Write a sequence for this structure.
């Protein structure tokens, strides 16, 4: 059982669940509460907007996302046995879990995730949205089988799919809000602000994931060279890959402060961002630049993961600021 949980990266799946919960309840819900509308069948008084995507559907959405993510981890280890033996010195698929069983698990997770995705989309009245789950499932398979061996393509795919996790919540909440309030509200307000908020978290997830993937490729350089993978460090060299990682980190920091200055400009965000996000980013960049081996790169990779968690956790700060009218 432990091998199975390690294979599907249960810690990462918990982060996926946490991300979706926070996007719904710490960002979208409090942001909606700041928008007042007048209901047709009400007293005529203004009332705050509320979530309209049902809790049951949301639970199924999270389950679908978790299943497809788990399937992606399984197939990734299935195709990475040889390189993982060099880079990590141990593997799960082929030892603790037979290859045939791993493929069966991958199929079960994918079929369940795609089926749930189409079911949720059908219940929402937008069956075509279920195609996203099918596409993601296919991308994860081809990423593991081929794309991750190609220059930058694999890194970008992983970054995009990571960014989709928060976006999925808004993709399903927006239609539910639109369907309800176009019928029940006197005047339908603009809902683009939801995508602005969630889009900020999604872009942060994209750029930090892209940076971390490049750092991981530097860490796995030895195995990738041995099996002819065309990763960024293999093609450009480790030093150039380090420079690109540091540039991406610097770009992230600059964009954070630009966003704060033009759109937020509150002291709480500035303090949190500087301490919980920017400082770890600076530490990661210094570690990358000074690294001489896999140990330092692994530390930088873990630091980037902490940065990603800190970025997600900022949603709690958003909820507090909105609740107490501190923006």
């Amino acid at each position: 059982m432990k091998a199975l949980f390690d294979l599907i990266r249960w810690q990462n799946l918990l982060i996926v669940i946490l991300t979706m919960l926070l996007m719904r309840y710490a960002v979208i819900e409090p942001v909606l509460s700041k928008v007042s509308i007048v209901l047709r069948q009400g007293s005529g008084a203004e009332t705050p907007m509320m979530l309209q995507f049902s809790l049951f559907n949301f639970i199924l959405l999270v389950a679908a996302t978790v299943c497809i993510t788990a399937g992606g981890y399984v197939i990734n280890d299935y195709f990475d046995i040889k390189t993982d033996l060099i880079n990590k010195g141990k593997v799960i698929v082929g030892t603790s879990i037979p290859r045939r069983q791993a493929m069966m698990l991958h199929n079960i997770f994918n079929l369940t995730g795609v089926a749930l995705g189409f079911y949720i989309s059908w219940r929402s009245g937008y069956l075509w949205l279920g195609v996203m789950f099918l596409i993601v499932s296919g991308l994860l398979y081809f990423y593991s089988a081929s794309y991750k061996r190609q220059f930058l393509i694999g890194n970008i795919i992983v970054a995009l799919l990571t960014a989709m996790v928060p976006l999925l919540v808004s993709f399903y909440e927006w239609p539910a809000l639109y369907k309800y309030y176009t019928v029940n509200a006197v005047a339908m307000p603009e809902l683009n602000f939801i995508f602005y908020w969630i889009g900020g978290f999604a872009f942060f997830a994209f750029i930090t994931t892209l940076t971390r993937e490049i750092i991981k490729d530097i860490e796995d350089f030895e195995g990738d060279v041995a099996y002819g993978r065309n990763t960024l460090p293999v093609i450009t060299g480790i030093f150039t890959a380090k420079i690109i990682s540091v540039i991406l980190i610097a770009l992230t920091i600059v964009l954070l402060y630009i966003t704060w200055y033009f759109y937020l400009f509150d002291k709480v965000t500035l303090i949190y961002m500087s301490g919980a996000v920017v400082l770890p980013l600076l530490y990661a960049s210094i570690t990358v630049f000074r690294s001489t081996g896999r140990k330092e790169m692994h530390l930088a990779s873990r630091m980037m993961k902490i940065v990603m968690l800190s970025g997600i956790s900022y949603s709690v700060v958003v909820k507090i600021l909105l609740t107490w009218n501190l923006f």
